[in-house]
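Q: Convert this sequence to structure tokens.
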Amino acid sequence: MQNTPIRSDKVPHLATNDLIFIDFDGTISVKDTGIAVIDALDLDEAWQVEHQWRRGEIDSMECLRRQWGMVDLPPAAIYRMIDSFELDEGFNELAEAAIQISAGLVVVSDGLDFYVDRMLGRLGWEACPGEMVLQRPRRCIPRYANHGQVTDHGVKITFPHRSRDCRQCGNCKTSHLMRLRPHFSRTIYLGDGHSDLCAARFADVVFAKAALAEDFARAGREFIRFDRLAEVNSVLLAPYQG
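A:
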């Protein structure tokens, strides 16, 4: 793993009462699911919408609605496509370790719950409401995501976690982090994209890749670069491995 020169010199191993905040798209899924859908269907117009969002011209809610509105497939075809996307199986080791030592772990996604839940299921996990992280559940993965309902007439999207204080994201990751962090001793953030930037700034330890790593490097913020979750595990879980 190539660490940046500005990384923290000390990265404590995962401990009881730590809270892991982990992004889904591009972090647990190897490729951002929305981008994978765009590429699979060759939706050039959806890429134009994506760039508008990245430039801050539209918020993620408009981006999601417009992009998924271009997906003209029956439900069975949508699910087949979702089931073909690669997942980072290093997530399993991280989640199991968190359970064993009573650390908290919550998935935070500005994507859609229908595919987050389905893809977590492929890794052998059931999803449950994010607030359950406070109970340290042993049989499910707490998660926050936007709601997507797959119908015969397209994917209908609502935003149950929208924050009045955030004008860019449908699911405000920062609000979740700030609300939950008083219940834990340390927050550890894992992410890759623009929707992670705001929340990651308030974490105690940040593992970053892709756009998030670039943003942190430009801002001179401390982080540890990674490409796959096995690299994160080698840092956080070293005392528990082998």
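The radius of gyration is 17 Å.
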